[in-house]
Design brief:
About 50% of the residues lie in helices and about 15% in strands. By secondary structure, it is of the alpha+beta class. The strands form three sheets. The protein has a four-stranded mixed β-sheet, with helices on one face. The protein is globular and about 80 Å long. The chain starts with 6 loop residues before the first helix and ends with a helix. The relative contact order is 0.11.
Length: about 375
């Protein structure tokens, strides 16, 4: 295996570090002390900084003003963003933009992508379905009506929906096929109801009542929604990795300074073993993340479809990020729950990521189904 990143990918990491260097996790009120959302909007100044550093156009083709990089580069940047709990729709906007670029019409791509790269257009995706447990594409119906599409249904837990200009909504046609609709937020028949995430961020329930869209606004190319779903999941695993790495670093710093019986607690075997276990979790999260991102980036074939690699990454990220923050809280003692110290914010974000990915047991079952359906040579 070669885990060496290209010069372009490494340059993206350095640019991301420079932009995120001025971000602190406590730029909004604590979710533990706020009855509603911690803020009405995402971090617009940071968004402008990302646009100015060409990180919003990173994965766009040169014809749309971008650098033409791949999902691996996106995951590298997302990893850095999670270390500072960056409050921006970077994953959603980039993932939807890449899907439009790969599967949408040239007209749709020309209309949307240059504005995305300049930070003028914000995109998000409705990937949680009606309840958060059912396949998202089954929550909305899409019927062809001449030159238009008619959409009805409800999607829950849509991130940044109130701030987004377009919402990518998967829908089923009734013929066993999924399409992907780019729904303008301010559109007849679209209503949003406020929801709040575990991390305190503003989400929305998106209801569509007889929403009419023109044909160019709906991507009906086979595989578009499935690719977007896998990319969103892989990007979420990158967020889990970056968050976990920062939390383990915070734990190392704290236990190296905190003394008991005249010695730093980091020198105690019980503490060192727990930290080592979490380091192993992070390395497993890392290798499974890059495997999934590599499959998405190259389209290479394997013994299993790419969804198998994504399922493995989800298993490690979902359980791993939970174990990392739990151990961090334990080793920090009461200090970890202090709202003047940022660890509790990381814990809330980790729980939101874990809930977004879903339980590892469900991914293990999905992986088992794939293994049963494919002969491994």
């Amino acid at each position: 295996m070669d885990f060496t990143f290209t010069e372009e990918q490494q340059a993206a990491v350095e640019a991301a570090k420079a932009v995120f260097s001025g971000v602190t996790p406590d730029q909004v009120p604590s979710p533990a002390l706020t009855p509603g959302a911690v803020a009405e909007d995402f971090d617009r100044p940071l968004w402008a900084g990302l646009a100015g550093s060409d990180l919003l156009s990173l994965v766009l083709a040169a014809e749309h003003g971008g650098a033409g990089l791949d999902p691996i580069a996106l995951c590298l940047v997302l990893r850095e963003s999670a270390k500072v709990l960056a409050r921006v729709p970077l994953l959603e906007t980039s993932a939807v933009a890449m899907t439009v670029q790969a599967y949408g019409s040239p007209e749709l791509a020309a209309e949307i992508l240059p504005r995305v790269g300049r930070g003028e257009l914000v995109l998000t995706a409705a990937a949680n379905g009606r309840t958060g447990h059912d396949p998202a594409e089954l929550a909305v119906t899409a019927l062809r009506d001449g030159e238009q599409w008619l959409l009805d249904g409800v999607q829950t837990g849509v991130p940044w929906a109130q701030s987004a200009d377009r919402i990518a909504v998967p829908a089923h046609t009734g013929a066993g096929r999924a399409v992907l609709a780019l729904v303008p937020r301010a559109h007849p028949g679209v209503t949003l109801a406020d929801q709040v995430s575990t991390s305190g961020e503003r989400l929305a329930e998106v209801r569509l009542d007889s929403v009419r869209l023109t044909a160019p606004q709906v991507i009906d190319t086979e595989g578009a929604w499935e690719w977007l779903r896998d990319l969103l999941t892989t990007g979420t695993c990158a967020l889990a990795l970056g968050l976990g790495e920062r939390v383990l670093a915070m734990t190392s710093e704290y236990t190296g300074k905190r003394e008991q019986f005249g010695f730093p607690v980091a020198t105690f075997q019980a503490v060192a073993v727990q930290a080592a276990d979490r380091y192993i979790d992070l390395r497993a999260m890392e290798v499974t993340l890059w495997q999934a991102a590599w499959r998405l980036s190259t389209g290479s074939h394997g013994a299993l479809p790419v969804t198998g690699d994504v399922a493995v990454a989800k298993i490690w990220a979902s359980d791993g990020v939970r174990r990392v923050v739990q151990t961090a809280q334990h080793l920090h003692g009461g200090f970890g729950a202090d709202t003047d110290y940022p660890l509790h914010r990381y814990h809330a974000w980790a729980k939101q990521i874990e809930l977004s990915l879903g339980p590892a047991a469900a991914h293990e079952e999905a992986l088992g189904d794939l293994l049963a359906a494919h002969t491994l040579g």
